[in-house]
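REQUEST FORM: STRUCTURE PREDICTION
Request ID: SP-0412
Submitted by: Lab K.M.
Chain count: 1
Length (residues): 423
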Amino acid sequence: MAKSRVALLRTSPATVLADYHELMNLAGYQDVVARDADTALKINISWHFFYPGSSTTPWQLDGVIRAMKRDGYDPALIHGCHNRTVVIDAHLGERENKQVHVTDAHGLRNVHLYEGEDWISIRDAVGDLTKRFLCLNDVYPKGFMIPRRFIGENIIHLPTVKAHIFTTMTGAMKNAFGGLLNEHRHWTHPVIHETLVDLLMIQKKIHRGVFAVMDGTFAGDGPGPRCMVPHVKNVILASADQVAIDAVAAKLMGFDPLSIKFIRLAHDLGLGCGDPREIEIVGDTEAARENWHFTGPFKKMTFASRMQHKIYWGPLKGPIEWSLKTVLAPWAYLASVVYHDSFWYPFLAKTQMEQVLASDWGRLFRNWETMEADARGYADVGAQAPELQLTGWKAFRKSLGLLVMCVREAPEFSNRHRKVVSS
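STATUS: Completed
RESULT:
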């Protein structure tokens, strides 16, 4: 049996577009992503404000689209794909992270799954596969819905390399979390590792092809996926094996992949390879041997992340967790927005971002709309120092509108439901 393959390259702004093309072909994406099927580029927005390492980068999205077009894929069959949560505004996020600039520039469709898309019962979608689920039948005894458009589509996940307060690290496997589950996805947090394995089973059943392209130009240590310590790491990864690419990313960060529960479970169930010793690395093998010695998400947790751990796995589980499955749940959404959007980002983020924003990648991001690429990348990233507009008091004022959004969009209050269809 052939080994799982992960492609890894060092990159720079001047070569990033050529590097993404080489990377995807080293990983064999054309053998996985069917040309005659629609392909969803599953964009990651972990924060609607720009924060290095948190969300899909514009050059990552641009590089993937250009590679597919160069290799003869029909742009009419490629679209950006977004989910929504009650604490993340996807429309604000795609603007602030400059992803919508890329899809618009290429003339691609931009699909927001919670806006007019049909959703179908999981039992109608995957049949008896539900009997193999590790936890989702217990979390959702009445079942749950998934987007109907996913059935028969290719999906290319576009995560970044970062730590995560619930799962140690997050990458390709967790990028399916927002798209496949409805607004009550927070019900799965106590069993998040088992949930990611169930979601991988679903993906393998419903998609024509599953592929991942991970950006590590910025990488995030600490209590991710938002309040991180960002670093410039200049690597990109790709694989058709969602478990293997997460394992390699975890190893780069200095974690033992098989000690991370979702990677171990998926590996043991044969859903992919989580043991780096059994993974074929192609591309820059020297870069793949690096150890970044990240401290991880648990040593310097934020107040919010400590409280989440106490609620889901600690002494507050009994007194409080039950409320998250009732009409009282919006208190948690409001608390998240107040802490992350009204406090942490306006008053702490700028200092945390300052060093990496002075890098070539930081200047490329700041000047993205005015930069012109050549065949290989962005030789000129601009001399202007990166100055983000939505920081400080501007971000604070924006957060007040986000408080209104999270209450308005709360499934406990909203009467807007997905369009349900039968099989």
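NOTES: The mean pLDDT is 92.
Reviewed by: T.R.
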